Amino acid sequence: MATLKQVAAHAEVSVQTVSNALNAPHRLRPDTLQRVTKSIELLNYRPNRNARSLRTSAVELIGYCVPSWPHGQAHLVMDQFLHSLCGAAEATARHILLFTAPVGLKGMPVYEDLHARRLVDGFVLSQTETHDPRHGWLREQQIPFVSFGRVWGETTQPGPFVDVDGAVGCATAVRHLHETGRRRIGFLSWPKTSGLAEDRLSGWRKACEELDLPTKNLAVRCTEDTIEEGARATAELLDSGQGVDGIVAISDILALGALRELGARGLTAGVDVGVTGFDDSPLASVVSPGLTSIRQPMDQIAGELIAILTDKHSSSAVSDESTQQPRSTERLLQPELVIRGSSAPG
Prior knowledge:
Pfam families: LacI, Peripla_BP_3. By secondary structure, this protein is of the alpha/beta class. About 40% of the residues lie in helices and about 15% in strands.
C-alpha cells in the first residue's frame, strides 16, 4: 500500500500539500488539487483512519447504541431512522458503527471501551434520560456527541440535540380533525413519567383550548405502547358517554389499537370517528382505512445530527455556509401531517 510520502513524490508536491488535499482541499489551487487527487487514485492510497483522526480530531466513524424495547418488540420507526442515519453519514464519507449497551451507568463500560480502542470518533445518542451519565462523561473526555431527542426534566439541555416538535405535531392533528367537523377529540397518551408524552399532550390540550373544544376526562393514559392498550383506552373513551368523535393517539401503535376497537364495535374510522397517529410508521399506509399520522422528517433529522457531530467542536455553534452565521446546535424540527382515510370528513 502506498504511503503519504510516495503520493507526494508521485505528484511532485510536499507531504503537507498531500495532507491539505485530504483534510483541507480548499487551501490548494484547483490544478494542484487535481494532480494530487490523480496520484492518490493511481497509487490507491488509503489514509490510516486512526492516525488521521488523531491528527485532525476528525469524526469519521460514529457510534450509535441500538435501543432495546420492552418485551423484545420491534420499533417500527427505528428501522427508518437507522437507514437515514447511515445514509447521511455515508453521504459525507463517514460510517456508523452499531452496538448495544445496557442503559444508565451499567452501559458506560461499553462506551469507554469503544473510545479507548479508538473504534469510534464520536457518538449519536438516543433514549436520553434525566441525569444521563453519558453526557457528562463524553464532555469530560472531549468526545463529540449529539442527541436525537431532548432530555426532559432539566432546566438546560446537557448537550447538542436534534428533535421533532411533538407538541406542534399533536396540535396539528387536533386542528385537522376540527376542520373535518370533529368537536370532541380524545387523546391516547403514555404514563406521566414520560416527558415526551407530556410534551405531546400539551400540544393536544393547547390546540383544543384555542378551538374552544373540551378536554376534561378526554385524555386516557396507556400503561404500554401496544395495540391492546390502544384498544382498551379507546373503549374507555367511547364508553365515557361524552360522544367522542375524534381521537389523537400519541403513537401509531396506539392508533392501530383505536382502529381495532372501532372495528369491533361496528364503527368506521374516518366516518364515525376520526383517528390520527404519530410517526407515520410503515403500517400506517397498509391498514384499512389508511392511518392519518404525523411524519417525522427522518432524513432531515439524520442530516442535522451528522452536520452537528462532524463539526470539530460539536458543543459549539456550527456555521451555516449560506449566511456565515452560527447555527444553533439545538435543532427543533417541524413534523408533517400525512392525511389518509382514518380522518376523512365525517
